[in-house]
Fold each of these.
Amino acid sequence: MPVADRTRSGTRPLSPTQAEIVQVCADVVQQLGLSRSVGQIFGVIYCSPRPLAFADVVAALELSKGSVSKGLRFLRELGAIKPIAMPGEGREYFVPETELRRLLRGVVQSRLRAPLQSGQARLRTIERQLAAADEPDREFLAQRLDSLQTWHRKTLFFLPLLQKFLGSKG
């Protein structure tokens, strides 16, 4: 491949199909309330026929090093990408997790389980505060809080079932 067909880092530019896949991933991730760049990073790794290093991702997406670093760290914690060692290379390379079940398990662990557990304590704190406060709408707020606690209990009840379905240990 001629040098003109490569980016400054030596990687090939994205093909039109790869660019579309990257945009789909970015759109989906953004709809989930996450940073668009996280979706772009996953997308470029997902549609690459070879493992990509940090510099490859920066060059392919023209994102800042800080944004790529944070995105890679987040995707690793989520289990959406895996680091691999390449023979003779000192750099870390990344490949995507392509099994949907494992991807969903990572999302459940990081985006649902931890917030739900901390939410339980917060709801109890709010309940104590409401009982002690001179709140003009106390009865109304108590009903709403009760409703939130019910939703929370139901979600906590179903979370282990979802994790079991996804092959995760509760």
Amino acid sequence: MFIVITLGLYNNTQQNTKGGLKLMITFLKRVLGPNVLVLITLLLLPVFLVTDNVALLEQMIEYMNKD
């Protein structure tokens, strides 16, 4: 699970697109369900804030709220 998150974030930062992020979130939603995804987001919050990826975090939250 952590590998999926890491690869999704890496793919997203390398290509500078939302593709990796959408793929990662869709995969985690189907496998784990939306409640676990929210928990993961809260756990990753310090990582996003430390690495100054606030825009990426906003994209992630926005995409999670679409469904």
